[in-house]
Amino acid sequence: MTQQVDFWFDPLCPWAWMTSRWMLEVEKVRDVTTTFHVMSLSVLNHGRELSPSYRAMMDAGWGPVRVALAVEREHGPQALRAFYTAVGTRFHPGGESKDRATVEAALADCGLPAGLADAYDTGANDEALRASHHQGMDPVGSDVGTPVLHINGMALFGPVISPAPTGEAAGDLFDGFLKVTAYPGFFEAKRTRTVGPIFA
Prior knowledge:
Blueprint: E1 3-9, H1 14-29, E2 32-38, H2 41-44, H3 52-60, H4 62-75, H5 77-91, H6 100-109, H7 126-137, E3 148-151, E4 154-157, H8 167-182
Parallel strand pairs: 1-2
Antiparallel strand pairs: 1-3, 3-4
Helix pairs in contact: 1-8, 4-5, 5-6
């Protein structure tokens, strides 16, 4: 029986990117299907006290998630998955600017209509964006960000990994994560990160 995993991401987050690459590897070695969904760090941090530099990043973060939501709503989950791969590749390993021009280039990479980029600058669908965000994030609470996985009827932040394992190592990590999520009383396991996102 295919294991369904629901994955919430913000395109800005390199840690969500690492987890997404892991899940795509897991799909190669386990009977797993991952469905991608949009959350927003800008929504999550709205009204919070933030440093000026992080506030600027959150203010700029609305555009990419708005476009991601537009892709999902108008073209479906597979298109969202492809768009996230394209824009995330440009943002993270590619090191390109997290701006509208890069989002437009990612849409072109996927053969998606250029007009979807118009969502970048409008809050017309922000109510739907917040709804997608809360669907993913409310079950894990307000003390975490992205990535978030829903699996086994449970929602957990993470895993936060670097680098993303490949092949059977990806499958082994998933097997362990699956067992952890199966226990309803499991809440947290953590250690200090000693490396940043390793993209290659």
